[in-house]
Write a structure and sequence with these properties.
Elements: H1 2-6, H2 14-17, H3 19-86, H4 97-114, E1 118-125, H5 128-135, H6 137-153, E2 161-166, E3 169-175, H7 179-195, E4 197-200, E5 203-206, E6 209-216, H8 224-242, E7 248-250, H9 252-255
Helix pairs in contact: 5-6
Length: 261
């Protein structure tokens, strides 16, 4: 256009005079629009990618959190099962000595705070050695398992617990139970065992048990008193044994500290 104007082929006007500048300006304007549109597209693409990345990250966080909660729940369940297994007697399925020690300690503290009685029954199978000697240890083991089930069926409250104390001895823990109530439960256990015929290793057995009962209202948080409670119940068991077996004896020195109601 500049050459055409120079050789007077086209007339001289504002457009022909400043066409180059106008064209350059238009190019710059169009380039600016193109760059602005490109920037807009890039921003939209960045926002889309960022949104997808955030959404994917949030989804992964939710998935990982859910997986973590599931793993923690499973771990807690397995730990609970492991703890239960560690507190159960492998032969009889009732609680073991470890559980007994923990339970007595806990109940001693609670009964001390609430000023309520705590009773324990020590149950011993009469002449158990003769069963092993005459019929074998397999028969003796089966007798222990069935006795544990009989004792377990004699308790009704969820807070009561049957524990294997060792050998042919079991301990029944009765929180919030006074001496009269504990003696009644002990007599129920004794009479139920005596009236039940047990089938063990192809032998029909009729067992009897001797039971010593101890009951106190803990007057002191010191667990030395707990040892005295066990000692009193054990002494009562000895009296039941020496008194002819198949009977219940209540420790009088422990009973005097019990709730008189």
């Amino acid at each position: 256009m500049y050459a055409l104007k120079t050789f007077h082929i086209i007339p001289s006007t504002v457009i022909t005079e400043y066409g180059l500048q106008i064209g350059s300006a238009l190019q710059m304007i169009l380039l600016s629009f193109a760059l602005a549109d490109r920037m807009r597209l890039l921003k939209e693409e960045y926002a889309r990618v960022e949104h997808e990345a955030r959404t994917q990250l949030e989804r992964r966080v939710v998935e990982r959190t859910s997986a973590l909660h599931s793993a923690l729940s499973e771990l807690e369940s397995k730990n609970r099962i492991l703890h239960e297994l560690n507190t159960l007697d492998g032969l009889t399925g009732v609680h073991n000595r470890r559980f007994l020690d923990e339970l007595l300690s806990k109940e001693w503290s609670r009964c001390h705070r609430q000023k309520c009685p705590l009773s324990v029954l020590i149950i011993d199978i009469d002449h158990f050695k003769l069963i092993n000697d005459n019929h074998g240890h397999q028969c003796g083991d089966e007798a222990l398992k069935q006795l544990a089930m009989i004792v377990q069926e004699c308790i009704k409250r969820p807070g009561d617990a049957v524990c294997r104390y060792g050998g042919e001895e079991f301990v029944l823990v009765l929180p919030d139970t006074n001496a009269n109530g504990a003696g009644h439960i002990a007599e129920t256990v004794r009479s139920t065992v005596a009236a039940t015929q047990i089938r063990a290793a192809e032998h029909n057995l009729t067992l009897t048990v001797s039971i010593g009962v101890g009951c106190v209202v803990p007057l002191d948080a010191d667990e030395a008193g707990l040892s005295e409670l066990i000692r009193a119940a054990d002494a009562a068991l000895y009296q039941a044994k020496t008194g002819g077996r198949n009977q219940v004896r209540v420790a009088q020195e422990a009973a005097r500290l019990a709730n008189p109601n």
